[in-house]
Design goal:
two-stranded antiparallel sheet, binds ligand FNR, 12 strands, 8-stranded parallel beta barrel, alpha/beta, 14 helices
Length: about 375
């Protein structure tokens, strides 16, 4: 169907399933084990309800915000997803171009199909990009990569902490991995096992020995803000804060790691409560920013996360499906759909700006904290 018939982010998934090749579909759509967490990621949003306010002059609404101090047209960024060329020959560049057009931030994955420098070079002057980091067992390789990224102007380093071993994504494991290997960080990965899917083939360099003590080292090699991606309980969010991180992403890796991990939006509630209690923090907080990803498909999902204290949310698969089906225009359309949804839903909620989205505007009483 023509792009004009696409009405929401779910539509891209339905079309991608039909037009993508089997390998790419298996890699993008797969999740761990019985895929319970990936289902829950989106379902969790369905249990949170709005308490809209009326008569608040919503002639003009503005949903722009700041993420780690950088302007963004929406409280949303394009999160890191590996192997963009499985879905489209231009891979991650599709995301870079659409991100520029909509003034949103792209997080570049360590395991991008395009070369890191190619993705940075494709950015417009002033366009902000973050980097997702998988930490190599060979720390020198990681150090060089991080230092290079900082020199190239990357504005935030998101260290993935939920993948000491790759989850079992059985849909993907049934496929043999023959596609092009990602450019960066993978050069020392000579023993890649290609018999069990894309994820396994590309991930054997990741260090399962990574621990809290290593964060000091990261602080010594870069001045970029450090964010831990894949925090799943308030105790670890508190550790991250005490270790001087700039924030955390409450995420279960799109359901691709530990099955039965809770959704990020659910974890958000306990993190806000406990960090308030234990460190007197109020959210959203500029010094320690909370991000959520997983299952975000509507502006209303984003608004719920913001109401509960998140600075912004990450969106992954919908953009992959968008460029796999329609190339760069697909991603542009996906972002435009979200912009339009923001405009309408901010009006209906009675929130003219992001600051007007308050905790009282959602009923999240279904979520119990720990
Ligand atoms: C991911 N994700 C991911 N995360 C990460 O830290 N490093 C990576 O290389 C990847 N690669 C990756 C590939 C694919 C195909 C997917 C779908 C996801 C996880 C990603 O950053 C994010 O946590 C989830 O994708 C968010 O969930 P949704 O929006 O896809 O539901």
């Amino acid at each position: 169907p023509p792009l004009s018939e696409i009405l929401n982010l779910h539509d891209f998934e339905a079309i991608a399933r039909q037009v993508m090749n089997e390998k790419a579909w298996a890699y993008y759509s797969s999740a761990a084990d019985d895929e319970i967490t990936v289902r829950e990621n989106h379902a969790a949003y369905h249990r949170i309800w709005f308490r809209p306010r009326i008569l608040r002059n919503v002639t003009k609404v503005d949903w722009s915000t700041k993420i780690l101090g950088h302007s963004s047209s929406m409280p949303l960024y394009i999160t890191a997803t590996a192997l963009g060329k499985l879905g489209h020959p231009d891979g991650e560049l599709n995301l870079t171009r659409a991100a520029a057009k909509h003034s949103v931030i792209q997080m570049i994955p360590t395991l991008a199909s395009c070369a890191f420098d190619e993705i940075v070079d494709a950015a417009q002057p002033g366009q902000v990009q973050f980097l997702q980091l998988y930490v190599n067992k060979e720390r020198k390789i990681t150090q060089q990569f991080v230092e290079h990224a900082e020199k190239r102007g990357i504005k935030g380093l998101f260290i993935t902490v939920d993948a000491p071993q790759l989850g079992r994504r059985e849909k993907d494991m049934r496929q043999k991995f023959e596609a092009e290997e990602p450019d960066e960080m993978n050069r020392n990965n000579e023993k890649a096992d290609r018999s069990q899917g894309a994820a396994r083939a590309i991930s054997s360099f990741i260090d399962p020995g990574l621990c809290w003590d290593d964060l000091k080292w990261f602080k010594s090699i870069t001045t970029m803000p450090l964010i831990l991606k894949g925090v799943q309980c308030w105790e670890d969010a508190l550790e991250a804060y005490d270790h001087g991180m700039a924030g955390v992403v409450l995420s279960n890796h799109g359901g691709r790691q530990l099955d039965f991990a809770r959704s990020g939006i659910e974890v958000l509630v306990e993190v806000v409560e406990k960090l308030g209690e234990k460190r007197g923090l109020k959210f959203p907080n500029e010094k320690f920013q909370l991000f959520v990803d997983g299952g975000v498909r509507r502006a209303t999902d984003v608004i719920k996360a913001v109401a509960l204290g998140a600075t912004a949310v990450g969106v992954g698969r919908p953009f992959l499906y968008a460029f796999s089906s329609y190339g760069p225009e697909g991603v542009d359309k996906a972002l435009q759909i979200l912009q339009d949804e923001f405009e309408m839903n901010m009006r209906l909620l009675g929130a003219p700006t992001i600051k007007d989205i308050t905790r009282e505007m959602v009923d999240a009483s279904c979520i119990h904290t720990h």
